[in-house]
């Protein structure tokens, strides 16, 4: 075993792996937030609760229906995304023409209600969710041991993030979505059902949060508070990357996860605040965020 800057290599690479895993969740969740804000102009504070709901759908599918992990990856985003569509239809669409503050207050209140309902039903101790048999074990890379499931989480997150970016930035559907945020009347004149497009976009963003919840379930215990603290960090990631920037959310999410991991190695006391310090510095230098566009 060798050392890097006086730190054993196993400890350093182990913390970098943890940082990369955290960054994977930051990237997917901030991507969902960026999609919703960039295309709908709504600050979705319910995102953390919807991430938690995804983990619970996976747990309940296994416990009550015998549906395993791989099907839960498909089922949870659909179920939670449908719940998001219902929210958008009934409540959120009434706020599109109002100040951002109204959307933030509504979604924050909804998050508290959802978390409270799950807390009353399941408590806060956490429920176990096992790693799928195909992904147990790990690989000895020489300088560190890489658990198979954690490697899968990183790869799956990259695939989801890059696919979402590709669809929004390079396809005709993505062009319709971006155009609908700028001039919905003109897009509707081309025969596009803009209200339906907006509703499905919100459902997709919520589905991304649920997918992250399923990926997180075997790593962290499934509990009603699992998204409450994480969502604050994810909002900081979105602000640093640039509100509404798809690519900025992905790059910043993974990058800040690595920074957090390195901080735990060299200055552990600052690991809980380093992302917020970076956010303050970025806002002082570039208020629109690293990848954001100034108005």
Can you walk through the features of this model?
The chain starts with a strand and ends in a 10-residue tail after the last helix. The chain has 295 residues and is mainly α. A hairpin with a 4-residue loop joins β3 (138-140) and β4 (145-147). The chain is globular, with a radius of gyration of 19 Å. The protein has 11 helices and 4 strands; from the N terminus they run ββααααββααααααα. It has a single domain, classed as ABC transporter involved in vitamin B12 uptake, BtuC (Orthogonal Bundle), CATH 1.10.3470. The strands form 2 sheets. A two-stranded antiparallel sheet has the order 1-2. A two-stranded antiparallel sheet has the order 3-4. Helices cover 69% and strands 3% of the residues. The mean pLDDT is 87.
Care to give the gist of this entry?
The chain has helices at 9-40, 47-65, 69-90, 100-122, 148-170, 172-182, 184-189, 194-216, 230-241, 246-266, 274-285; strands at residues 3-4, 7-8, 138-140, 145-147.
Write the layout of secondary structure elements.
Layout: E1 3-4, E2 7-8, H1 9-40, H2 47-65, H3 69-90, H4 100-122, E3 138-140, E4 145-147, H5 148-170, H6 172-182, H7 184-189, H8 194-216, H9 230-241, H10 246-266, H11 274-285
Antiparallel strand pairs: 1-2, 3-4
Proportion of residues in extended strands = under 5%
The secondary-structure element order is: EEHHHHEEHHHHHHH
Largest sheet: 2 strands, antiparallel
The neighbouring-strand order within the major sheet is: 1-2
- Rounded to the nearest angstrom, the distance between the terminal CA atoms is 52 Å
Principal-axis shape? globular
Number of helices: 11
Q: Provide the helix percentage.
A: 55-70%
Helix/sheet category: mainly alpha
Architecture per CATH nomenclature, i.e. the level-2 architecture: Orthogonal Bundle
Which runs of at least 5 residues are low in confidence (pLDDT < 50)?
Answer: none
């Amino acid at each position: 075993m060798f050392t890097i800057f006086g730190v054993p290599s196993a400890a350093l690479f182990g913390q970098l792996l943890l940082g990369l895993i955290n960054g994977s969740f930051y990237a997917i969740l901030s991507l969902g937030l960026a999609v919703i804000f960039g295309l709908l102009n709504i600050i979705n504070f319910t995102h953390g609760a919807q991430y938690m709901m995804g983990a619970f759908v996976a747990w309940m599918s296994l416990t009550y229906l015998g549906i395993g992990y791989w099907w839960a990856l498909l089922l949870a985003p659909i179920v939670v995304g449908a719940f998001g569509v219902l929210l958008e239809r009934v409540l959120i669409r009434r706020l599109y023409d109002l100040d951002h503050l109204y959307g933030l207050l509504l979604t924050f209140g909804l998050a508290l209600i959802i978390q409270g309902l799950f807390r009353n039903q399941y408590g806060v101790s956490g429920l176990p969710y096992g790693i799928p048999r195909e992904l147990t074990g790990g690989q000895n890379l020489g300088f560190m041991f890489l658990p198979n499931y954690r490697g899968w989480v990183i790869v799956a997150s990259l695939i989801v993030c890059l696919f979402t970016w590709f669809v929004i930035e390079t396809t005709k559907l993505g062009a319709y979505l971006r155009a609908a945020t700028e001039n919905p009347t003109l897009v509707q004149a081309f025969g596009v059902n803009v209200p339906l497009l907006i509703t499905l976009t919100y459902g997709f963003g919520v589905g991304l949060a649920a997918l992250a919840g399923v990926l997180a379930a075997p790593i962290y215990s499934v509990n009603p508070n699992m998204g409450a603290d994480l969502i604050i960090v994810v909002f900081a990631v979105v602000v640093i990357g640039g509100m509404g920037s798809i690519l900025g959310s992905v790059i910043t999410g993974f990058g800040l996860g690595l920074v957090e991991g390195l901080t735990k190695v060299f200055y552990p006391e600052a690991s809980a605040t380093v992302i917020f310090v970076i956010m303050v510095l970025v806002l002082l230098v570039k208020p629109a965020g690293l990848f954001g566009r100034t108005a």
